[in-house]
């Protein structure tokens, strides 16, 4: 190595060290345990800037990585300490809200024993919560609360009992004569009927809106949206017919028979996130006589031609994250309005295809339903 080459190498190294030092010093060391940790567990942790820090005990492992996001995209390489713990911090701050993640130890995929688990990516994944500046709207507060109950309903079309979760608003048990509208709310691909309550806090969002007088009380029904299982990347193989039958011919009649509902089109809505939005669009176009309100949350858009000649919806709500395709969402609403439809678009600021987008979307959509 020549003197000139050596000098260049030293300068580059110093710049690299300086850059690393500046980045490291920029991370605020005010980390606290995530609100989704198992009882008594210190890790994972999050700081005031949205960085996440992980610590995994694996003394005999050769490599440990944390993969964040739906499907485990992205990765944070952990470094091993003399005590057998592997520790690492995300390279940058994460979006506000809920995130799935898993841990890869020597090539094997596992969940973090320090975190609670949530069903996503067709498996139970670890979850971490990055505190949001607007988290108050889904916070657990001292207000009247509704109930979320599990129901098992018969399905002749599939030959099996099926499960749904039903949110009934505060006062449902006491006001025996009152009947309520119903929102059928669908999860995304790889999730199940627990997602909107566990990850989305749909019940708390509704409790708080109702307590503030911002929305009409209504029932929410959340059921599993798959009748034929498909793998990631094979959504073209998904057939809507089976689920459409379960929803419109089995679940809705069961809910109307067992809950105090206003059982007509103008008091029935369907909405869904991601794949649930695809299901919503398809079923509402196939069965416009069943639902009067439509909601696509990061789940595509409607065009005026889609709705032309069908029973007119009372509301079309379309949303996405600011990091998704907001121009398409806003254009869809503009085109629908120009064609005479009551259409509303909403874009969640600085979020992508993730639950903070969908929490905010439900919060914006709920007050617009059943007017």
UniProtKB/TrEMBL annotation:
The keyword Signal applies. Residues 1-23 form the signal peptide. Keywords: Signal. InterPro entries: AB_hydrolase_fold (IPR029058), Esterase-like (IPR000801), Ig-like_fold (IPR013783), Ig_E-set (IPR014756), Mycobacterial_A85_antigen (IPR050583). This is Enterochelin esterase. It comes from Spirosoma fluviale.
């Amino acid at each position: 190595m020549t003197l000139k080459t050596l000098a260049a190498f030293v300068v580059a190294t110093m710049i690299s060290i300086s850059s690393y030092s500046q980045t490291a010093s920029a991370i605020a060391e005010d980390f606290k345990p995530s609100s989704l940790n198992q009882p008594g567990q210190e890790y994972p942790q999050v700081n005031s800037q949205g960085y996440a820090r992980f610590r995994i005990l694996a003394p005999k492992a050769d490599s440990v990585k944390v993969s964040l996001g739906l499907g485990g995209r992205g990765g944070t390489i952990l470094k091993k300490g003399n005590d057998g713990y592997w520790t690492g911090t995300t390279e940058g701050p994460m979006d506000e809200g809920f995130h799935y993640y898993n841990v890869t130890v020597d090539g094997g995929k596992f969940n973090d024993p320090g975190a609670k688990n949530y069903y996503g990516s067709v498996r139970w994944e670890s979850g971490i919560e990055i505190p949001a500046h607007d988290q108050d709207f889904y916070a657990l507060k001292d207000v009247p609360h509704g109930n979320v109950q599990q129901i098992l309903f018969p399905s002749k079309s599939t030959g099996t009992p099926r499960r749904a979760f039903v949110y009934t608003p505060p006062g449902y048990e006491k006001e025996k004569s009152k009947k309520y509208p119903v929102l059928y709310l669908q999860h995304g691909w790889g999730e199940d009927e627990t997602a909107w309550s566990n990850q989305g806090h749909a019940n708390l969002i509704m409790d708080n809106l109702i307590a503030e007088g911002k929305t009409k009380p209504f029932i929410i029904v959340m059921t599993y949206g798959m009748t034929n299982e498909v793998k990631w990347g094979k959504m073209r193989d998904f057939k809507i017919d089976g689920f459409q039958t379960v929803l419109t011919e089995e679940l809705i009649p069961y809910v109307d028979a067992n809950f105090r509902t206003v059982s007509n089109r103008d008091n029935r809505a369907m909405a869904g996130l991601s794949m649930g939005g695809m299901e919503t669009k398809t079923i509402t176009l196939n069965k416009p006589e069943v639902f009067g309100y439509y909601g696509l949350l990061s789940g595509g858009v409607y065009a005026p031609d889609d709705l032309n000649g069908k029973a007119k919806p009372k509301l079309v709500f379309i949303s996405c994250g600011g990091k998704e395709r907001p121009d398409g969402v806003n254009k869809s609403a503009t085109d629908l309005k120009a064609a005479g439809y009551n259409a509303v678009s909403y874009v969640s600021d600085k979020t992508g295809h993730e639950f903070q987008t969908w929490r905010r979307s439900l919060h914006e959509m709920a007050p617009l339903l059943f007017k």
